[in-house]
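User: When convenient, might I ask for sequence and C-alpha cells for a protein?

AI:
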Amino acid sequence: MIVAERKPLEAILKMMAPYRKVLVVGCGTCVSVCLAGGAREVAVLGSQVRMARRRADDPLEVLEATVHRQCDREFLLPLAAQVEAADAVFSMGCGTGVQLLAETFPHRRVFPLLDTKFMGVTLQPGWWAERCRGCGECILDRTGGICPITRCSKGLLNGPCGGYRDGKCEVDPTVDCGWLLIFQRLKELDTLESLREILGPKDWSLAAVGPPRRVLREDVRINVEEGPV
C-alpha cells in the first residue's frame, strides 16, 4: 500500500488561511489503512482546524467527505456539489489523489494535507516499512522475494557491500543488511546457487525518471490510444 503522513497542523492552517469555507476529502484505501487520511482522520483534522480558527477569531467552515479511492475519477465525480460549494479543496489522499482531484475539478485549488512516503507493508499497528519503489523491472524471482533496491540502502544488485557489520547496514545500524536477508532466504529455500548469476546494470529508464509512466492493457488499446496521458 501507499504510506503517507499528515503534514503538521501549522502548515495546514497556513494553507487554509485565505479561505472561509473548505472541503477536506479523505481516501478509504491506502491512507486509511496507515491512519493518515481516512474518514476518522478527516473528522479529527476538521475539528482541529475549526478550533484553531475559532481561537484566532477567524472561523472556518469545513466540509468533510471520504471517497472509496481518490485515484479513480468515478469516485470523485459525486463530490462535484461539495467542491462547488467550497472555496478550496484539501486532499487527505496520496499525491496521486491530489493530482486527480485537481484534474477532475480544475476550477478549484486543490492542496495536499499528507506527505506521501513510500509503498510499504504493515509490520505492526502504527508501524510501516518500505518494500517497493516501483522501479519498473522486478527481480524478486532472483532474490528470494526480498527486494535489494529497497532492503539494501545502497540498492546493490549482486551482494552486500564491505561495510555491513553483525548483519546490520553500515548506512543505518538499526536496519538489517538486505543482502544478508536475501542470502538467508535463499539458503532456507536451498537455492543459493542462483546467486552465481550476475545481474546486469539496472535499467533506471523504467523507474521514476523521464516522462510519466503508463500501463496500457493490449485488449483496451484501441479505445484509449488517442486519449489523455
Q: What stands out?
A: The first strand starts at residue 2 and ends at 6. The CA atoms of residues 77 and 120 lie 29 Å apart. The mean pLDDT is 93.
